[in-house]
Amino acid sequence: MKIQRIHHRFYGFILLFILWITAGINAHAFIPGTIQGIVSDADTQYPIGLAILKTNEGFSAISHSSGVYKIIHEPGEYTLTVQAEGYYPYSIVVNVIMMESIRQDIALTPIKNINVPSIHGDVNNNGRIGMEEALFIIQHISQ
User: Fold this and answer.
1) What is the mean pLDDT of residues 109-119?
2) pLDDT > 90: what percent of the chain?
């Protein structure tokens, strides 16, 4: 068994060497690293599920209900963008290293809804919207 493992590793290195020599490319680019972490709410620290994470090279993942995500990616420096419903998008530069896992936790800022009172229609029920309604609206906005 031990001899078989050594042969498999040896053949793997030979294959990478052949690719590097014959294709004139960096064989290390084929050995990925990982970006992983937890997506959470910046205010409550609760996990955010179904957040969409994408790199500028098109690698992507969706966070689990526990906020956990993992992207297997080729080595290099990339921009990771995260989006989730009800939160502002967030981007960060990450450096993926061959055969290594980097931890990148992300805290998204929730979009706060501004409650603006709505004022409708005819304040004095005279069938028109006139000066009295305009004054009523101005008084309520200035409060």
Assistant:
1) 72
2) 55
